[in-house]
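FYI - complex with adenosine monophosphate, inputs then prediction.
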Amino acid sequence: MQKLALQWKRQGTRIGFVPTMGYLHEGHLSLVHRARKAVGARGQVVVSIYVNPTQFAPHEDLAKYPRDLDRDRKLCAEAGADCLFVPHDTDMYPAGQAAPYSTYVVEERLSQGLEGVSRPTHFRGVTTIVAKLFNLVLPEVAVFGAKDWQQAAVIQKMVADLNFPVEIIVAPTLREPDGLAMSSRNKYLSEAERRQALALHQALATAREQVRQAAEPLPAGRLRQQLRRQIEKNADARVDYVEFFDPVTLAPVRQVKLGDHLALAVRVGKTRLIDNGSLR
Ligand code: AMP
């Protein structure tokens, strides 16, 4: 991959990059289109598929994460990607007694709250693999989804702090017609759980409505409790967190107003879903 990327660079070809864990859906493909728009018809758009073990905790769904490489390959080609990069674990994290893998990239501020509380080793895995992928693919531009708001913020911080010569584009969250954010993990949901999964989007709608109608900022604690109750009216839904915060610094806000951001993580049955949006 790196040899190919260096060749492209020598020819003056721009490289646009979309890192994914595969089992692609239209949300992923919208990032491919965005990358194409950024590098133009003569640029190279690279999609990577790698289910990165270092961003999963031992009790999480690494082993059963959905995979369908044949289908992903077709979808990438249809979406106009030029190159699909599918590294193996042994390429990314060499094992063996003499030289086991031992270098990590850690962002220490933006990664602490929200997902970082429930998944304390997650972002260390994300920043490490994205740094490695950037060094292999050598993109001018990389596209991430707003669906993973904190991830995009952490990557932007990593790029700024470590001077990666990469422009980060954050593209909007694609949703199903009823509002459920597209996610590879939606595949885990039974029919009844799929209906209850709408609670995340409904919570965003409720929060927006409340903030729009309020004459003054609303106490975050009370709004959080209200949304938690609303979500957990669904028999199989359990809130992991509901958090209001500043969209750039990710610092929690005590008084919620227009322009603040809401992120939530909810377990629906055994499936952990996340969503977020701006309150405006
Ligand atoms: P994943 O395969 O879940 O690691 O996601 C790969 C990239 O696709 C990440 O930048 C995600 O934020 C992005 N993504 C996932 N779901 C969506 C969606 N529904 N809309 C837009 N981007 C998404």
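DSSP finds ten helices and ten strands in the chain. The first strand starts at residue 15 and ends at 20.
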